[in-house]
Amino acid sequence: MDTFNEKPKRGEEHHSNANTIAWGVIGGGTVLLLGNLGILGGILSLWPLALVGGGVWYLTHKGTKMEIKHEHYSASVGDATSARVKISLPVGETTVRGLDDASTLIDADMRFVGEMEFSADGEPEKVVNLHQTSGSWQNWANPSNWNWDAGKQLYSTIGLNTSVPMTLDISGGVGESRIDLSRINSSHLNVSGGVGEIRLTLPGKADSLDVRAEVGVGRMELTVPTNASLNARVKGGIGETVIRLPSDAAVRLEANNGIGDINVGSNFRRVSGGGDWGIGKSGVWETANYASASQKITIHYEGGIGELKVR
Length: 311
Prior knowledge:
Layout: H1 14-36, H2 47-60, E1 68-76, E2 82-88, E3 93-98, E4 104-113, E5 116-121, E6 125-132, H3 134-140, H4 148-153, E7 155-160, E8 166-171, E9 177-180, E10 186-192, E11 195-201, E12 209-214, E13 217-223, E14 230-235, E15 241-244, E16 251-256, E17 262-264, E18 268-273, E19 282-287, E20 297-302, E21 308-310
Parallel strand pairs: 2-6, 2-8, 3-7, 3-9, 8-10, 9-11, 10-12, 11-13, 12-14, 13-15, 14-20, 15-21, 16-20, 17-21
Antiparallel strand pairs: 1-4, 4-7, 5-6, 16-19, 18-19
Helix pairs in contact: 1-3
């Protein structure tokens, strides 16, 4: 049974709340950009209404002062021969990396606000879920919680087993995330950004890697390991997307940007397209060794608002 396609249980709606925050920022940024470009004439003259609306919301939805909690979550490998791991990152700074302990499937040291939910069930395929509840986002949305001292205390570290084959689904939170999967045994990866910066290093153990990555609001930097065979679909949001490749990689880039530029390295040549217009660019680029290579990297990019850099 595909657990990731099941109807979310109570408390798992936190990611939709994170998306609401992200898409609210995206919508506001888009409207302001269109106003600056003159596409929506007079839109900027309505900005005081945003302040009025924000004041009304604050007076009627103050929420509660957040308490920073510190918890530890762990699950052993046991008899598991594979795993499906679904993680939604919290508010704050988060690091995801490989574990040195072969007997542990996941080990998470979390500092967070609100409530966390954790489960690890089933064998031989173990299904792991780690996420915050929806109330966590409501408490963070209280402006009285936005202070530098509290932000410095919100940091978490999540360790994953490096031997057990995993299907990974990671959703971004709010803040900076460093996701180093270079030692993880995974051939299927789905990563979606929240609000902030994500630095993602892809798994290096898979013979063939399938990746889906979506930028939220902020910057995503994606690093491809050496000798990778990769099929990646990347969807832009608002912000810069950077894809770092091995120097001798055989690469094909199919890109259709929204608002922003596409900047590729000197080892790429454009083989089709030319639909550049005004503030967007599209086309297909390849490295000279792509057609003859046994290991290939294919990237499909659908842009949002911001520049794509491929190096």
